[in-house]
Amino acid sequence: MAETLNRKQIADLCKVSLPTIDAWVGRGCPVVEYGSNGRSYKFNARDVLGWRRRYSYQPKRRNPVFVEVVGRLVREVAMTVGPAAVKAGASIRTAYGLESLLTIRLATFAQDSLARNGHHGVSLLEDYLTIEDETDWQGIADEAGQSFDQDECTQFADDLIFPPGWKPPQGSPAALAAEQQEKPDV
User: What does pTM read for this prediction?
Assistant: First the structure.
């Protein structure tokens, strides 16, 4: 059986941010086991890398300046929402979840809007948000006098992004894999 990796390990392997991994799952990236209620998502590295090669976006941009402005906006939100929420009194867990949810939703909305206006194949999270841009949650927690539990925060964010009953897009590799997991062994 192939070794499974969690979200953070897959993000590190692919040199992308955690919100990018969440966006990939929403677009059908194969998942070995969906996380919930304290369980982490599990991914097969080979399957994810193969999916990325097959389904990665190949930008066809008619107005690269416009796309860059939108990409920078998504990046700015991703880098400022969480720390601002903590400064406003939110817990680290709440701020982490809020940052993850807003980043994914804003990027998805912006990509859909760009596609409707002729900018197909844009992946804002992959193109404009890197591992180096990730929020230093441990540093923010230390500064705020709070604790930071990566697994707890990740699970909270996953529950916000992928609420109970969430299913991957129909016909996507992730949906097909989930269907196979649900079938009883014969």
Answer: 0.67
Closest CA to 122 of 102, 108, 106, 101: 108
- Per residue of the chain (186 residues), what is the pLDDT tens digit? 468 899 889 988 888 888 888 888 888 889 998 877 778 889 999 999 888 887 765 545 456 777 888 888 888 888 899 999 999 999 999 999 999 888 888 888 888 888 777 777 778 888 888 778 888 999 999 999 999 998 899 889 888 887 777 666 565 545 555 566 565 554
Tokens found for residue 107: 């990027």
Report the alpha-carbon distance of residue 131 to residue 85 in Å, rounded: 21
Distance between CA atoms of residues 76 and 128, nearest Å = 10
